[in-house]
Specification:
With 225 residues, the protein is mainly α. The protein has a domain at 99-155. The chain is 47% helix and 8% strand. It has helices spanning 2-11, 21-32, 87-117, 126-158, 181-189, 203-208, 220-223, and strands at residues 45-47, 52-54, 59-61, 66-68, 73-75, 80-82. Strand 3 and strand 4 (66-68) form a beta hairpin. The structure holds zinc ion (2 copies). One zinc ion binds at residues 47, 49-50, 60, 66-67. One zinc ion is lined by residues 47, 49-50, 60, 66-67.
Amino acid sequence: MLLWSYLITVFTDPGSVPEHFRRELEGENLEAGTSTDQGAFGSLGYCPKCRNVKPPRCHHCSVCQRCVLKMDHHCVWIVNCVGARNYKFFLLFLFYTFLETMLDVIVLLPSFIKFFSQAIKHSSSPGNLASLVLAFVLNLAFVLSLLCFVVMHISLLSTNTTSVEVHEKNGDVRWKYDLGKKKNFEQVFGKKKAFWLLPLYSKDDLDNMISLHGLEFPTRSDIDP
Ligand SMILES: [Zn+2]
Ligand SMILES: [Zn+2]
């Protein structure tokens, strides 16, 4: 599951602004007679580097040198950006890596305790002891840092916020994309429970949930006008 989630996160495009996006938008606004600020896509920005319109929640990544839909962050571990279309896979990768390193720590713990309690008369070779200590310490370090990361992303997920948006949120006002915990979770993981632990989406979710494509996102005023 870890490898599957990892590879899918690496090879899934986090989402880029379609080339025809601007033209479509202008067409829609001409028909609706609205300005680009109040169009069907909500408030839009402009990226001077890509010279293109920025859909809501889209940000320019200086490493990828392009705009990424619902950009969360650029991740060096996956050599890719984490955005609208691979955020779920990234979270699953985090989750499974956390479980895997946790399992390692639990399995290695008895041998590690034995190593210190029988410090004088070791029966194993120095090579075995060194790899045991190294594996235990590295796994423990990963478990602790992943735990912080998992807790941080659970809090972001429960409020439907990206790592970039944390700085944009106005402290007093409830975040406009915060639809309530269950809906926020579904916005990323989809509605089909059977697919929640798999780095996949059901066809129904891909067809019916606009947020999974990264160009439009329901806001609180859509569900609770
Ligand atoms: Zn850009
Ligand atoms: Zn990037």
